[in-house]
User: Fold these one by one.
Assistant:
Number 1:
Amino acid sequence: MSHREKMAAAFCAALLLAGLTAGGASAGGSDSSEEKPVCVPILMYHEIKTYKTGKDVILPWEFENDLKYLAENGYTAVTMEDLLAYTQDEADLPEKPIVLTFDDGYLSTYVYAFPLLKKYHSKIVFSIIGKNTDDFSSIPDDDLDYSHVTWDQLNEMLDSGCVEVQNHSYNLHKYGKRIGCVQLPGESYADYEKLLAGDVGKLQTEIALRTGRLPTTFAYPFGSYSQTTDQILTELGFRATLTCDYGVNLITRDPDCLFRLKRICRSHNHAAGGLLTEAYKTIKQR
Ligand SMILES: [Zn+2]
């Protein structure tokens, strides 16, 4: 751990002891060299179903209860653009920021999460798999067991202001010889760069053309990455990456702090309140 990270961890531990679990930004015109890091937990969701539950599948009322808990406990859901603006010294963050991420682009996010976001005035970061959204746009299917959103549904979500779209690969969301977008043993950097840049860049272009937005964040499929992955993504223009590594993030005005952000997996029967309490302990223990 670097000196800067140790200082940040010590600061967050002090906040915890003071009962200020999330630690708000205190920028407000202060000297940024003295500014304290902001603790930003990121919850990771995948699917919402009414008839099935699991590690990555929760019930609609569970998501609603999370939103209620966050509102009642002073949290404000922010987007990756908000974090980016903070690191670039263009804006401050609310007192208790949190990021709610939904991966994969499932139709269930549109059907169950989207109405609740409007009801509770909350926001999510929605990282889609390009090929799935292309396929379900070509041949619409409303089976909530496996369907993904169409471009039209995505645009409706984006226009609401409750949803931010990000990149989860065009067609590298696979678990086989290559787990997601990792570099294979023996694969040359040139070959890996060609594959990753080609795939991820294709989705960047599609999202830009279909929605008028350009993602700044890449959510690693299965949370897997190689040492070289961020370098290629940075060259493509990405400013942040989301992992499945567990923990709470310490956000500073340094733009580099947005790479390899940690997340907290929200599973069935593991409500946001308990998850956040446990996750903050990882900072306390450091
Ligand atoms: Zn995924």
Note: The chain has one domain: 3-284.
Number 2:
Amino acid sequence: MKTTAALLAGAAAVVAATAGGNCSKPYVTSEALQGLVRLEDLLAGSQTLQDIADAHGGNRAFGGGGHNATVDWLYDTLAATGYFDVVKQPFVELFSAGSATLSSSSSSSGEKVYTPKPLTYTPGTDGQTLSRPVVAVAELGCEAADFPAGVAGNIALVLRGDCNFAQKASLAKAAGAAAAIVYNNVPGGVAGTLGAASDAHAPIVGISQEEGESILSALASASPETPLVLDLFIESIVENRTNYNVIAETKQGDKDNVLVLGGHSDSVYEGPGINDDGSGSVGIWAVARALTGFRVKNAVRFAFWGAEEFGKLGSYYYVKQLNRTGETEIAKIRAYLNFDMIASPNYVYGIYDGDGSAFNFSGPAGSDQIERDFEDFFKANGLPSVPSVFSGRSDYAGFIENGIPSGGLFTGAEVPKTAEEARLFGGEAGAPLDANYHQAGDTVANLDHGAFLTNTKAIANSVAKYAMSWAGLPDVHLPQRRWSADRHRALHRSNARGLAGHGHAHAHSGPCGEVGGFDVREKVRERGGREGERKRVGGTIGKRVYIRFK
Ligand SMILES: *[C@@H]1O[C@H](CO)[C@@H](O)[C@H](O)[C@H]1NC(C)=O
Ligand SMILES: *[C@@H]1O[C@H](CO)[C@@H](O)[C@H](O)[C@H]1NC(C)=O
Ligand SMILES: *[C@@H]1O[C@H](CO)[C@@H](O)[C@H](O)[C@H]1NC(C)=O
Ligand SMILES: *[C@@H]1O[C@H](CO)[C@@H](O)[C@H](O)[C@H]1NC(C)=O
Ligand SMILES: *[C@@H]1O[C@H](CO)[C@@H](O)[C@H](O)[C@H]1NC(C)=O
Ligand SMILES: [Zn+2]
């Protein structure tokens, strides 16, 4: 089997090089490719994305004008090289975003302003501010009997826990509540999803435990004559949106043994996403353009995933489409490299822990080699690096769930820098690795230029290596890949809860550091929902949206 595959692969390489290649170009080398990676190109690309966001309401979120323009820019600039076959791959997914305000003006202690987060897929309040008494619900609001008659026409205050948010929202509506507020059962805010849009749900927001308890204590001194009145406004967008992956593959090289690398082209709704993941997109875009000066032995496919911020939708869609051909197309992918945030302002040089040495989630066979190759790059440049947890929390998930060796780089999100990391990398211990993570402040000013340049050279180094040779990476062995795929799907399920404490999870692929995200994921699974596709929704939407309204 192995010998035949290798022979066939060799034959294909020869055909590809003569058919699509340019024999006057030299074969790529790491040094030459790295030499073409220039900070000014990275910054110019980042500025282009910033300009696009600025021209489209401050974001590049999926299905919106800012993302469309990002997709067009990637497509146009890569197609113009003539070196790649470039496609835009469309797919449709449900978009949801919203904003909310909540305050009490009638409380004896004066006006108090809360920080509500609309639950994903909540109905809005029809452009009105509801001014209604708030009524506490008994128990956890998981049974109709928990809702007192007084909630009819008013705002129900419900404690988080036991049943999912959709059930609380439905029971509130059934009891006649005009809206519902769910407050956390542990410190911190609640971000969650109703799992789907439905007319059966009352409009619903989440608030922190502290805010919930402060409303409860104010309620203690309220009476039917002097109720505690809250002002609640929810704006909600729920709509199907067409979105695109951009895939650019070298015309030359062995198409049966392909290196795939990717980053996501969308931002959150809350900001322009220049580090997350403008940095990864621009990094691989720059390497793609640099590669056009060379010949390659193996085909290299650059992927720009859409709708990552909604649960890795673009990469999952892509893998699913490939998967529909059976194992043929998947088996052509020899390795996958992922770059999601590579220029964080208070960065670490994080490398996905492919060998499982640090976090006990090893990738498919070969992921250890990919990690080692990145480690060697940093060592050779006299730079430190740290392992980054590798458990399926960015666009590489669909690849490791198909047994494809994977790896990548990650400079960190909202997690604070440890003292040890500050010793290794400089920067500020105790401060987030990216203080502007998923916020309006993730602009061109939010990039560490040195980290951006170094990481992009690291990408170039790995691309040059695998474009020429698979030495050190295993041959494609389908039974082994299937075994590995099963294991990753199982791990993925069993670890859905346990990761919050790990330092370098790409947090926006989880709960955004908020209690609630994992719970959301469990609930989606309970619903029998498309777990892989929806799990991040609750963590990212409605978190910080600044929409002005009157
Ligand atoms: C081949 O490469 C040379 C040098 O980079 C370039 O001038 C020429 O246009 C290329 N030809 C094709 C067919 O790509
Ligand atoms: C973005 O592109 C999609 C698909 O082509 C289109 O339906 C949508 O209207 C575009 N949005 C904007 C704001 O241009
Ligand atoms: C989105 O599209 C799906 C599938 O076509 C459809 O069932 C659903 O009603 C649509 N949702 C909205 C909000 O338009
Ligand atoms: C790909 O297909 C296999 C069966 O052929 C299935 O077990 C696996 O879950 C699929 N993976 C994805 C990501 O769709
Ligand atoms: C590592 O993971 C394996 C399988 O998931 C488990 O059996 C083992 O106990 C774990 N080891 C540690 C040190 O956590
Ligand atoms: Zn990201």
Note: The pocket of 2-acetamido-2-deoxy-beta-D-glucopyranose (ligand 5) is lined by residues 360 (CB under 6 Å).
